[in-house]
Amino acid sequence: MKKHRIKRSILLMLALVLVLAPLSLGTRPGLARAEQESAGLLSEGRMGTAGTSDAAASVPVSISKDFEDGTLQGWYGRGGSEVLTVSPNAAHTGSYGLQVTGRTQGWNGPQLDVTPIMETGKTYHLSAWVKLPAGTASSPVSIVVQRTTDGANAYELVKSVQASDSGWVKLSGEYTLQHPIESLAVYIESFDYPTLDFYVDDVVIERAPDPVPIEIQKDIPSLKDVFAGQFKLGTAVLVNEIQNPNSPDAELVRKHFNSLTAGNELKWDATEPTEGQFNFTAADKIVSFAMDNGIAMRGHTLIWHSQTPKWVFYDGNGNLASKELLYARMKKHIDTVVGRYKGKIYAWDVVNEVIEPGDQKPRGLRNSLWYQIAGEEFIEKAFIYAHEADPDAKLFINDYNTNDPVKRQFLHDLIKRLKAKGIPVDGVGHQTHIGIEYPRVQELDDMIQAFRDLDIDQQITELDMSIYTNDTEAYETFPAELQIKQANRYREIFDVFRKHSDQLSAVIFWGKDDLNTWLRTFPVVRNNWPLLFDERLQAKYAYWALVDPAKVPVETKRTKALEASVKIDGQAEAVWNVAQAVPIQTGGKAAATYKTLWDAGHLYIWVDVDDATVNGNDSVEVYIDGNNGKTNAYESDDKKYTFRRSGANPHKPAEYNVVKTEKGYRIEASIPVDGAHTGKEFGFDVRIRDRSGAAEELASWNDIHHRQDTDTSGFGILTMVEGPRTAKAVKGTAVIDGDIDDIWNKAEQIVTDRWVSGSSGSTAKVRTLWDDHRLYVLAEVTDSLVTKRSANAWEQDSVEIFIDQNNARAASYDSDDGQYRVNFDNEPSVSPGSLIANLTSAAKRTPTGYIIEAAVDWVGTPPKAGSLIGFDVQVNNDGNDDGVRDSVAIWNDTSDRTWQNLSNIGLLTLE
Fold first, then answer.
1. DSSP assignment, residue 123?
2. Among 12, 35, 531, 885, which is disulfide-ready with 8 (CB 3.0 to 4.6 Å)?
3. Backbone angles phi, psi at 594, to 5 degrees
């Protein structure tokens, strides 16, 4: 399976074409779709059972096309140029399958008329097996439905998969026919590969059983009541969710939420698609629903670079509009929209997503058409016009990734400038579209803290949590371990929100349930479960984590101990800087962090406890389950070690040292262990006991129910691993021109001789230098055949440099972390994209391969001599010029996750 890396996959491009809105929602029969809903959403609709007429009973519930009779069985070329052949070469099972050649357009492919087969309001399972001819590079193939309703065609993606020549892949998904039709067809295409040939066999279309009618859980606590007195608890919806006020969807909104956001219906393309022609039909329904049910209504969004009609930015001659014309249109639009709902909408996202450091514009502003025409002033005008239209509405500036310190600072400074000019900015909205691992909870804490000095309101405006870590993962069902992981992550995040409840006036989810989420079509089409309620509106573990965490099973977390020996003296030996600091969270803050190392016979642990109130009975408790048995009662190999703040009973039964710190105290300990070796796994947990008089608080790394004294089933897992490789970078400044200057002669050489994939291929000899401004890298690559046939940058022959400047060794990228790739033609790609300007590179061919010479600017405060930075370098190789990466050679981290997780990279000492 190919990883996402930096360049978005072909699936993303298809999804971007299909996704017209940030909310994509399933519907029930009889409810029209919202006007701006994604054309690409295909999922199980929520429907009650219905009676079956005689005519309906005659409709087949399934069909299959296996081509075993030697005919096309009704399939035809939808473009006319295709050549469809029943061939033994295309057989998945049996003797024949369908061979598709002669395509000239992305939408070309075999098509089957299913008009007589599918019924409105029913859900169908569609599947087909696909394969590519021998010698064809891996490419996406999709199954799509063409629906004709009221004379207009809609093209609805069901599923895409990455097909290859190495084996058959099942292409399957669900489709709900939600509209009356004149005609309906199923077809198979490869949209971004218009000449791709492929094989198809064993196509099956079968009707899914009618689902049981949905009822919401009326006897569980209402979320809005759980957070009463702290902040509003809101959701975004599309009009079809609340159009029937007696539907389960509408019931769920009424029960749990006291703030409502229109997902699409108040955006410019929905309210004024044509100049001067306003349409408030859908928006009025949502606002009326909110008013009728006593729910505060929030407006999203007035000014945005996306979902704004093209006419807004151009004059009658097709030229960019003048600033004056743009402002006139802006004022009229804001006056009309905001004025219509004056007194009904309590807050507006006035401008949305105006910061984009990657665009390299002054002050980090996005290079949108708004900016190109009017500069920063358009932001000021938008707030002024909105305030004039409704002086009582709270006006917000809204953006995503505000956890990123660079982007956040640009946004902070923009708000500060606006307020200094008297511009009526009342608040900042943090979208907070997050993942199951990134960003870290502490980053969200820092995000809110960073805006306190501005004395403005803050809201979490678009919260959801994808269960994926990259664009290639996909699950048919929601794995239980991820359900628990998601729940615990939501609990930790809401602990932070509660901690900052004096700053936050609302926390708003971007969708109310897992069926109604944009993340089922973006960044790729796949199942996703990012919210608190499932597809049938039932409370998930994520809900219970916020309401009653005891109802959530314990998550089994994992950590690693690096191989190294230390002296137990409370002093920070250099090797401790290599170990990853693992937080122990409680109440929205880190109660402690710990690090682990090991050698033969010992597990070493370093714990920094944040506890300024001294009590001699404060302690750190470490639990070891030698065989990782996960039992409900202790066995002979299960041990508990207590290390008291007072230092009582040192050396019994484990040696330890206590040091007073500015924020609390530190424990360094050596615990005896049997059978220590690389790869050994122990059951493991750490608990902090904070005593104050008769009261005490517990904070645990893994078992948040604190049952460690009698039960090891809630322990996490600690794995003993090799320590990272180390190298030295000497100080010096290189000229980046692809030539090996004399200064490189003093640099230490390392080799990419570990294999992430493959067991042979291109490798590199690598040297490094550094100065006060940047890190320099020289890679001499041995490569007998250089190629960039693949459109994916990571599959081209290239060198990748990974830098963790502060050596945090985090499981996700921090703001100082970067992935810098340069191919043999000196074409760069960088993640995150905002760091592209930090890279300077040169490439030069050699008789044995190529040279990459690169300089990477330090991020923020440069490191000093003696600093340790995280560092790794790898070589990507397409060995036979087929567009598929055959081998990856790396210096240190063989996990194949360095592009998203830097916890295993090597170390570079700056001398």
1. E
2. 12
3. -135, 155
* Token pair of 771 as six digits: 């100065």
Amino acid 60: pLDDT: 63
Beta-bridge partner residues of 176: 123
Distance CA 911, CA 909 (A): 6
Residue 205: predicted pLDDT: 94
- For the record, the structure tokens of 339 come out as 């004025």
Instruction: Identify the pLDDT of residue 587.
Output: 79
The contacts found for 51-60 with CB under 8 angstroms, 24 or more apart, are 56/119, 59/116, 59/117, 59/119, 60/117
> Hey, which residues does 702 pair with through a beta bridge?
none
Residues 547 and 557: their CA atoms lie apart, in Å, by: 22
The DSSP bridge partners found for residue 206 are 62, 125
Cβ pair 504, 432 in contact under 8 A: no
Q: Which helix (H) or strand (E) holds 282?
A: helix 281-292
pLDDT at 695: 85
Can you tell me whether residue 905 is helix, strand or coil? Answer: coil
Tell me: the pLDDT tens digits for 619-651?
999 999 999 999 999 999 999 999 999 988 877
What pLDDT score does 20 carry? 32
**3 state DSSP class of 746:** helix
pLDDT of 440: 87
818 strand-pairing partners: 803
Residue 58's pLDDT is what?
54
pLDDT under 50: residue ranges of the chain = 1-57
Position 603, amino acid: L
**Distance between CA atoms of residues 66 and 201, nearest Å:** 6
Q: Strand 139-149 to strand 296-304: parallel, antiparallel, or no bridges (unpaired)? A: unpaired
The residue with tokens 């991020």 is 859
pLDDT of 179:
83
SS3 label, residue 242: helix
> What is residue 31's predicted lDDT score, i.e. its pLDDT?
26
Cα 801 versus chain centre, distance: 22
Active site residues: 353, 399, 462
Residue 371 confidence (pLDDT): 97
CB 885 within 8 A of CB 852: no
Between CA 673 and CA 760 the distance in angstroms is: 38
3-class secondary-structure state, position 420? helix
Give the pLDDT score at 608: 96
Three-state secondary structure of 292-359: HCCCEEEEEEEEECCCCCHHHHECCCCCECCHHHHHHHHHHHHHHHHHHCCCCEEEEEEEECCECHHH
Beta bridge mates, 850: 781, 845
pLDDT tens-digit map of 347-366 = 999 999 999 988 889 999 99
pTM: 0.76
Q: Is 490 exposed, middle or buried (0-12, 13-18, 19+ CB in 10 A)?
A: buried
Token pair 């039992």 in the structure block, residue: 631
CA distances from 506 to 411, 464, 466 (A): 20, 14, 21
pLDDT value, residue 811: 78
Rounded Cα gap, residues 307 and 524, in angstroms:
19
Q: How many residues does the chain have?
A: 911
User: Could you tell me the two tokens for 456?
Assistant: 């403005």
Question: HSE of 634 in the Cβ direction (CA atoms, 13 Å)?
Answer: 11
Say which residue the tokens 């973006």 belong to: 522
Hey, what's the torsion of the CAs at 324, 327, 332, 335, to 10 degrees?
-140
- Which of 265, 263, 239, 261 minimizes the C-alpha distance to 250? 239
Report the number of secondary-structure helices (H) and strands (E) in the chain: 14, 44
Measured CA to CA, the distance from residue 237 to residue 232 in angstroms comes to 16
Residue 98: partners with Cβ closer than 8 Å, 6 or more residues away: 67, 72, 75, 84, 85, 86, 87, 90, 110, 199, 200, 201
SS3 865: coil
Best CA proximity match to 729, nearest among 911, 878, 875: 911
